[in-house]
């Protein structure tokens, strides 16, 4: 649950950081991004989220699905969440890459803002879904 809390806190911090960047004049965005250490934080968050979900997809979920076949609908839901989440992570990563350019446009910031909000929304929904399906298994087996 701590990992989930870290992901939720990180996605909220990402959204807040993007909103701060929206208030910065375009010519100063590069400096603001560096000052906020925004790119290293964002890349770490996205990498952490991908890695966490890979562990679930290749480790926990297949094992739990064999142990609890009655929960297969729940695991299918979580698998679908992961597909949407991976797309949101990838789209946000592409929008973040635009911040490496010499000139950052309002359009690229708007795309990043949209991606950050979508990522935060899917993470919140997915983690709630996941904790409803998975946490009872952990509690049962310690």
Which keywords apply here?
Four Helix Bundle (Hemerythrin (Met), subunit A); elongated; single chain; 142 residues; mainly alpha
Which secondary-structure class do the elements indicate?
A: mainly alpha
**CATH level 1 class label:** Mainly Alpha
Q: Summarize the amount of helix as a percent range.
A: over 70%
Integer average pLDDT: 88
Query: Which of globular, elongated, flat, extended, rod-shaped describes the shape?
Result: elongated
Biggest sheet, open or closed, and with what strands and sense?
none
- The domain tally reads 1
Kindly describe this structure.
- This protein is mainly α and 142 residues long.
- The chain has a single domain (2-141), classed as Four Helix Bundle (Hemerythrin (Met), subunit A).
- The chain is built from 6 helices and no strands.
- The protein has helices at 2-22, 29-36, 38-67, 72-97, 106-133, 135-141.
- Helix 1 runs antiparallel to helix 3 and helix 3 (38-67) runs antiparallel to helix 4.
- It is elongated.
- The two termini are 13 Å apart.
- The relative contact order is 0.16.
């Amino acid at each position: 649950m701590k990992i989930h809390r870290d992901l939720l806190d990180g996605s909220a911090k990402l959204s807040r950081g993007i909103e701060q960047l929206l208030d910065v004049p375009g010519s100063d965005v590069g400096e603001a991004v560096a000052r906020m250490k925004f790119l290293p934080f964002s890349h770490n968050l996205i990498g952490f989220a991908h890695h966490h979900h890979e562990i679930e997809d290749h480790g926990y979920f297949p094992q739990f699905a064999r142990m609890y076949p009655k929960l297969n609908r729940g695991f299918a839901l979580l698998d679908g969440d992961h597909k949407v989440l991976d797309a949101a992570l990838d789209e946000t990563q592409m929008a973040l890459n635009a911040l490496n350019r010499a000139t950052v446009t309002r359009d690229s910031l708007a795309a990043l803002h949209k991606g950050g909000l979508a990522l935060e929304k899917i993470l919140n929904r997915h983690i709630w879904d996941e904790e409803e399906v998975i946490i009872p298994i952990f509690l049962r087996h310690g």
